[in-house]
Amino acid sequence: MLRIERLNTHYGASHILQGVDLTVPRGRICAMLGRNGVGKTTTVRSIMGLVPPTSGRVLLDGQDIAGWAPHLVARAGVAYVPEGRLIFPDLSVLENIRVGERKPAKVWTIERLLTLFPSLRERSGNRGWQLSGGEQQMLAIARALVSDPRVVLLDEPSQGLAPLVVRELAGVIRTLCAEGVTILLIEQNMKLAEAVADELHIMVKGRIVYGASPEVFRAEEAEIRGRYLTV
Ligand SMILES: Nc1ncnc2c1ncn2[C@@H]1O[C@H](COP(=O)(O)OP(=O)(O)OP(=O)(O)O)[C@@H](O)[C@H]1O
Ligand SMILES: [Mg+2]
User: Fold this and answer.
1) Mind listing the pLDDT tens digit for each residue in 73-82?
2) Nearest CA to ligand 1 atom 6
3) Is the N or the C terminus of the chain less surrounded, counting Cβ atoms within 10 Å?
4) How many whole angstroms separate alpha carbon 157 and alpha carbon 4?
5) Do 188 and 229 touch, CB atoms closer than 8 A?
6) Is 84 touching ligand 1 by the criterion CB < 6 Å?
7) DSSP β-bridge partners for residue 153
8) Measured over all CA atoms, what is the biggest interatomic distance in the chain, rounded to whole angstroms?
């Protein structure tokens, strides 16, 4: 389980996260929605230790990992799929996956990843720059999985992808969940979030202001959208 308690993060003098509280139960998918610039990426960067939080706790199965160095957070079992994918353009597909490898995977072996992502198998010798946006996204997920994480943080994976690829992505996210991976999904694509998440949370100005099941969210959607999500 991933539990964030009263998390505060600053960039210099800017107080970005202002007491974030969020719980992702083990084996569940929680989606975080919110307008541009509210602090969604800062939340996952704070969890990973890429920007150290100024106060608050990040509990991973009860252990407080707030402020740990990124490689220690990764070793503790948290993997991060960054916004924009950040694939190495000059490395091959297999080399990109191996960047995420800490020791040979037990659960998400390279063979299994290539079965989960058939397009990556077909393109295993290609360089990162030769892949489509969808293939790059799957590669970024494969690179995260090869570390056998307990928790995966996905930052806007559907960005720029065609609807058909977003559906494929939804299938992949459900597969991970079925395999027991705990997922925090940051999304602007509400359809994807509603389709896969067990709970939806909305961030406004560095705080979580709303949380509900997809069913409840759907019933309240028009009002919630207007109040918290549309520009
Ligand atoms: N490295 C940085 N230094 C200073 N300020 C930053 C830095 N990164 C982000 N910010 C600021 O922090 C705030 C939150 O940014 P963040 O990237 O977390 O938002 P976001 O919710 O992920 O937005 P988006 O939907 O555009 O991805 C924004 O005002 C942004 O300008
Ligand atoms: Mg962001």
Assistant:
1) 999 999 999 9
2) 11
3) C
4) 22
5) no
6) no
7) 80, 184
8) 48
